[in-house]
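Need residues for this backbone.
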């Protein structure tokens, strides 16, 4: 079984959240660990750091989708000062998740689409 505590610790590292803040996302952390664990080709990979990182990156992406740690500022102007956001935090989190998924190729099943003919 993938350690949700290790996933939470890794989530804190990649997101900058404190352990107390991460507790607000226990459901997302547990879900991410379960989804990744279900996709494993072999249960011996459960303790691999790359698998833990994948589960944490998935949890981080889901946290960003909820808007949990993101500012809602998309553009703000006051006189000569203008603040705007180029990328949504979820965009960066998705890139991190995809990078983590690439690192575990061969350790997890690919549920992607395959066209085998007509």
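Answer:
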């Amino acid at each position: 079984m993938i350690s949700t505590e290790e996933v939470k610790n890794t989530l804190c590292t990649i997101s900058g959240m404190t352990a107390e803040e991460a507790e607000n996302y226990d459901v997302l952390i547990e879900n991410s660990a379960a989804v990744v664990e279900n996709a494993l080709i072999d249960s011996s990979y459960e303790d691999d750091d790359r698998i833990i990182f994948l589960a944490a990156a998935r949890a981080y992406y889901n946290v960003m989708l909820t808007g949990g740690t993101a500012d809602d500022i998309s553009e703000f102007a006051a006189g000569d000062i203008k603040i705007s956001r180029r990328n949504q935090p979820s965009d960066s989190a998705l890139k991190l998740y995809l990078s983590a998924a690439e690192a575990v190729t061969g350790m997890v099943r690919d549920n992607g689409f395959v066209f085998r003919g007509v």
